[in-house]
Design goal:
Elements lengths: L2 H19 L23 H16 L9 H20 L12 H24 L4 H30 L5 H9 L19 H22 L9 H16 L2 H18 L1 H13 L5 H23 L2 H4 L9 H7 L3 H16 L11 H4 L7 H4 L1 H6 L13 H29 L7 H19 L13 H16 L1
């Protein structure tokens, strides 16, 4: 390798490392040309803005070929369908809503798509073999470590008198669009607690869970992965994110049943096979598990936001959704589906579903959901969103974009499953990617942004690694 190509390779590695470390910061304050209502602002986009042109130059020089994979081609087809739907959507000419017109919404939405594509392509481009994947995972864990440290600082601020909340709020506003959450929920470096929970269950928990399942060490410190897993779990609890907790616990259990049956049989044999001789230890383990579950339930039950899931007097589904603060989300989703019903093939164009939402809200939400009442206030300037990526794609890209996106998702699943029957790092990656795929699939039910880095990074890693596997076959 020549001196210039060696330098280019090193620069690209450190730019990628900088992007991975900064992944937790998703609402970076200092972004040009973005309005105050644009909350998805990944700090990692800054190093990627330099990395991608550098990778393109390397590709032209044949130093690092473009990651042409089945997943990449399908994603390109999905993007082409979005551009076509958005171009034709101008013919609908929706009435401007709260000072926002179709063209402006479309441009902003297309920018979010480009941001998402940048994360996927960067991950695929920078992970062509196992050595590069190990480099990526280590720097992702470094970013997680920094995020957990900031979460710890927030916890000290919320639950002890050691730090003043006003002072820490100023620290956070130095890089974030959002101050500390007033309800004392941990949000880390993300915009809100649910975003932090989403990052944990779709990026970091899959890696740490797979490391535990396969006894894989990504760093030189043997105890680091288990400690990060424990701290991530505690942080997930401290977010009080209902979706994040249900996804994390549910997917961990499902993946363990799918790929950890050997561990389950071994644990079953050990537990009951030696019960007569080591009964005291086993009883202590049972008591510890019960204590942990009880403590978690009591901890979560302190917040009415979480407690309402099971403590409600609702007599109907609509009342239950209102009681658990999900009435607004269901209303936005229902309103966006009206756009799909009118334009089922290509949708109304990316970013335009909000023009249909207010006119098609369910009647019961107009009087029983406080959030809807605030949104309908004439002085409110917020633009409504479906709050569900799948419904958004149906409304804005129609069946064409929706189907292409699902074909892309299942192609990334195929990339993941191909590693499960292998050994070592490959099996670790297969488990992590399967966990992430399932978690991302459920996470997209609760968010509608294509710019969220956590839904692209691990699928991109697996897409890049699949090139190496295909070349060897």
């Amino acid at each position: 390798m020549s001196s210039s190509s060696d330098i280019s390779h090193r620069i690209s590695r450190w730019l990628w490392a900088a992007a991975l470390v900064s992944l937790p910061v998703t609402s970076f304050r200092w972004f040009p040309f973005l309005g105050e209502t644009t909350y998805v602002r990944p700090l990692a986009l800054y190093p990627l803005a330099i990395l991608l042109p550098l990778l393109l130059i390397q590709s032209i020089r044949r130093q690092r070929p473009f990651p042409w994979t089945g997943s990449t081609i399908l994603l390109a087809a999905f993007a082409a369908a979005i551009f076509a739907a958005t171009s034709l959507g101008v013919l609908n000419d929706p009435i401007p809503l709260r000072g926002q017109e179709y063209f402006g919404r479309a441009v902003r939405a297309l920018v979010t798509l480009v941001i998402g594509l940048a994360f996927f392509l960067s991950a695929a481009w920078m992970n062509r073999d196992e050595a590069e994947v190990k480099f990526t995972l280590r720097w992702m864990l470094a970013g997680l470590g920094l995020d957990l440290a900031w979460c710890g600082l927030q916890a000290v601020t919320f639950y002890t008198p050691l730090l003043e909340k006003e002072m820490v709020t100023h620290w956070q506003l130095a890089f974030s669009m959002r101050e500390l959450v007033r309800t004392n929920r941990i949000s880390g470096m993300a915009y809100e607690p649910s975003w932090l929970a989403g990052q944990i269950v779709t990026m970091y928990l899959p890696i740490l869970f797979a490391a535990l399942m396969t006894n894989t060490r990504l760093t030189r410190t043997k105890w680091l992965e288990p400690v990060l897993l424990a701290l991530s779990t505690l942080t997930l609890l401290a977010t009080y994110s209902r979706g994040g907790l249900l996804i994390g616990v549910g997917i961990a259990g499902l993946v363990f049943l799918l790929v950890g049956r050997g561990h389950l049989r071994a644990a079953w044999t050990w537990f009951f096979g030696g019960f007569r001789r080591g009964w005291l230890l086993r009883l202590a383990m049972i008591a510890a598990v019960i204590g942990v579950l009880t403590g978690a339930a009591l901890f979560l039950g302190q917040k009415n936001y979480f407690k309402r899931l099971w403590d409600t007097s609702a007599d109907s589904l609509s009342e239950y959704l209102t009681d658990i603060n999900a009435g607004g989300r269901s209303a936005y989703a229902t309103g966006a589906l009206a756009a799909f019903e009118e334009h089922p093939i290509l949708g109304v164009g990316l970013g335009a579903s909000g023009f249909w939402i207010y006119d098609n809200l369910p009647d019961w939400t107009l009087t029983t959901v406080p959030e809807i009442a605030k949104q309908l206030n004439p002085q409110n300037r917020l633009f409504p969103n479906p709050k569900n990526l799948y419904i958004r794609l149906l409304a804005e890209t129609g069946l064409v974009g929706f189907v292409l996106f699902f074909v892309f998702l299942f192609s990334t699943l195929a990339d993941s499953l191909s590693h499960l029957q292998q050994d070592g790092l490959r099996r670790f990656l297969g488990i992590a990617a399967l966990f992430a795929w399932l978690a991302i699939g459920l996470y997209n039910v609760t968010q509608d942004s294509l710019a969220a880095p956590n839904i692209w990074v691990i699928p991109g890693i697996m897409a890049g690694l699949s090139i190496n596997v295909t070349e060897k076959q």
